[in-house]
Amino acid sequence: MHFVPHFRFRVFGYNFEGAITRFYRARIKVENPVVDLDGDEMTRIIWDKIKSTLIFPFIDVDCKYFDLGLPNRDRTNDQVTIEGAEAIKKYNVGIKCATITPDEQRVKEFSLKKMWLSPNGTIRNILGGTVFREPILCTNIPRHVPGWTKPIVIGRHAHGDQYKATDMLIKEDGVLELVFTPKLSRVEERVKVFEFTGGGIGMAMYNTDESIYGFARSCFEYALNKKWPLYLSTKNTILKRYDGRFKDIFQEVYDKDYQKKFEDNKIWYEHRLIDDMVAQALKSDGGFVWACKNYDGDVQSDIIAQGYGSLGLMTSVLMCPDGKTIEAEAAHGTVTRHYREHQKGLPTSTNPIASIFAWTRGLEHRGKLDGNNSLIRFCSNLEKACIDTVESGLQFLSSALWYLQFIRILMIRLVVLLLVPIGTLLLHCKCILKQVVGIN
């Protein structure tokens, strides 16, 4: 894929068009491909602008493109999602735009053949692994938990438990039992759950050793990569066998494969009760990975996001148990409300940062796999440009700061970081805002 940049403006006489053209001629060469999974609505529009403005003018990378926009998923009977996931398995790096998971209203809106499953769920089922959510820290974003000065990363075991449970309404007196019928011995195991003397509810849920082992390895690999301690939280005092199995498998994997690696990096692993862990997290300054079961991770990831200030400043990375294969994406949705404004021809103030970080985290991982330090440095500089822009106050000078203006400012900062150190002084002048984005 080749994109020719077309920026035509100067700042205090400096030719940024020429600077980008020079970069385009000597772009950072990426040896192996990445998988580009396109999405829906406002994030799809921003996704394209990020690629054409901040990625392809600087990076020479072979992108294996899959259109996961809802119309194309419907057209291909969702086969495109499966093919995209298989491509991630092959090339080890996927970078995904936010997508629509259709409900009844969306089925009518898009005239869909059926209510297709969540593409994230489909990809997770094919790749396995664990979803890790990490906040993007900016000093001028107010935090509801001021003591969190370092990131807390939530690793959610997005498999089984309540999300694959079978539940039922009980309408009369009777006994609820849990029955397991083995394939080989044919001797049933039958456990009495409760004897009802009136109406009620019942539920059965499960998980597998294979999935829990994969969860454990993904968490240990991620913590090693970040060089942060890892905590697992369960309620094994109540669910002695169910949650106890998580605790035992994590300890087994740690003792066998990771204890020495953790000690060499001066980090540690520890199991804690979920209620104790919540209290400890609130008192801490951050800087750790928190492994959660499915429901706990669903709840705690949103609490952590709000504690740091915004879901729009959260990265999301699916890491597979091999520690080699990842899929990076923004933690938010497709921003439908802004898309409706865009359809009317109105400018929107959509925050592109989490989508930009999906690209930087994916490309950074590609750089680590390939030993490409230039690519890793580029990703670091692009993330710095994002954070510096927010911390300089430009993001908040106008509530309607158009996303295109914001991306253009990022591009200038990126050029400055990569090519023109002296220009850093200029970027703090209000005159630049007048020339570049027209803010008075």
What are the SSEs and their pairings?
Layout: E1 10-11, E2 14-15, H1 16-25, E3 28-29, E4 34-38, H2 41-55, E5 59-60, E6 63-67, H3 70-75, H4 79-91, E7 93-96, H5 104-110, H6 119-127, E8 130-135, E9 152-156, E10 166-170, E11 174-180, E12 189-196, E13 200-204, H7 209-226, E14 230-234, H8 242-264, E15 269-273, H9 274-283, E16 288-292, H10 294-308, E17 314-319, E18 326-330, H11 336-343, H12 353-370, H13 373-391, H14 403-418, H15 430-436
Parallel strand pairs: 3-5, 4-6, 4-7, 7-18, 9-16, 14-15, 14-16
Antiparallel strand pairs: 1-2, 8-9, 8-17, 10-13, 11-12, 17-18
Detailed description of the structure:
It is a single chain. This protein is an alpha/beta fold and 440 residues long. It folds into three domains: 246 residues, Isopropylmalate Dehydrogenase, CATH 3.40.718.10; 117 residues, no CATH class; 39 residues, no CATH class. The chain has 15 helices and 18 strands. The strands form five sheets. Strands 6-4-7-18-17-8-9-16-14-15 form a ten-stranded mixed sheet, sandwiched between helices. This is Isocitrate dehydrogenase [NADP]. It is an enzyme of class 1 (oxidoreductase). Keywords: Glyoxylate bypass, Magnesium, Manganese, Membrane, Metal-binding, NADP, Oxidoreductase, Transmembrane, Transmembrane helix, Tricarboxylic acid cycle. Belongs to the isocitrate and isopropylmalate dehydrogenases family.
